[in-house]
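Form P-L/3: holo structure prediction, ligand GFB.
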Amino acid sequence: MFQSLNTKANIYVAGHRGLVGSAIVRRLEKDGFGNILTVPRSELDLRNPLAVDAWFTKNRPDYVIHAAGKVGGIHANASYPAEFLYDNLMIHSTVLHAAWQTGVKKLLYLGSSCIYPRDCPQPIKEEYLLTGPLEPTNEAYAIAKIAGLKSCQAYRRQYGCHFISAMPTNLYGPNDNFDLHSSHVLPALMRKFHDCRAAGGTEVTLWGTGNPRREFLHVDDLADACVFLLDRYDEEPIINVGTGEDISIQELAELMRQIIFPESRFIFDPSMPDGTPRKLLDVSRIHKLGWHHRIALSEGIASTYEWFKKHAPNSINVTFPELNRR
Ligand code: GFB
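OUTPUT (holo model):
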C-alpha cells in the first residue's frame, strides 16, 4: 500500500490536539500505524530548544509530521502579531533542528496559503512565493511560515535532510477552533448560525464585505495528502494542497445558512477587515503526483456540523489559551 512508509515506524505528530494534528493521528491509526508519538504541551513546550532536543533524543522518531503552531483567523492574526511570529518561529526552529540532530528519516512541514503575496495572480502557483508584499492582517504568521519552509530547504541543502513542505489552503473540520474571536471564518459562521437558532434569533452578523473569495479543504483530505506526500514526495520545492475551487464569503454564508438555520438572514459588518481578496491555490502539481481531494464542501460542512452539535459545549479548541483569555 505504501511506497516508502512502514506502519511499524515511529511517527511523531507535532500538534496532535489541533485541527490538523488530530486529523493526521486519526488517519495514521486508520492506516494501521502502531507507533504514533504525541506529547501534550503541558509536557513539552515546543518553543523550548533544550526540552525539544531532549525529547527527540529520548524518543527518536523515524518520521515527523509538523502540524504544531499558533494559528487563528483574521482577527487573531491582526491582533497578536508578536505572538504569532515568536511562537511559530520558535516552534519551527526547535523541531526542525532536533529532527536533523537526531537523524529523522523524513519530516513533513505544514505551511499555509497565506505565505503567498496578497495580490498575486490566481490560481496561486508555488513559484509565486516571495514575488510581492504579503497581506498585512497575517504578515507575522506568514513570515514565520516562510521561515519554516525556507528552513526545511536549508536543512535539505546543507545537511541532506529529507525535509519537505506542503502548503494547505484554508482548512475546516472536527476539532476546529469555534471561538468567535480567534477562529477562522467557516467555524465562526457555523457557531454564529447555530447560536442564533439556539437563542431564537433571526439575524447573524458577519465580518467584512462578503466579497473575498476563499478555498476550503476538509482536514481529513489534508491528512490524506500528508500521508501521501510523506510516503511519495521527497523534493525541495513546496507543494500546494487544496481543492482548486473557491467561493465568496457571501456564498459560503448562504451555504451555511441553508445547512444550519434556513429561516435566518445575515448581514455584513464592513468595519471588520476583509483580508486577502482571493486565495485560490493552483493544485496542478499535487494532481500530477496522483492526489485529489475527495470531500465536497457541502458534504464536509454537513458532517462537521454533526460533529459540532455533539461537541458544542466544549467546542472551543484552546490551542492558544492566551488568545481566549483576553
Ligand atoms: O478565515 P479568516 O478568519 O481568515 O477570514 P483569512 C476569511 C474571511 O471571512 C475574511 C470573513 O474576509 C473575514 O472578514 N469573515 C466573515 C469572517 N465573517 C467572519 C467571522 O465571523 N469570523 C472570521 N474569522 N471571518 C487567515 C489568516 O486569513 O487564513 C491566517 O489570518 C491563515 O494567517 C488562514 O493563513 C488560513 O482567510 O483571511
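COMMENT: The radius of gyration is 19 Å.
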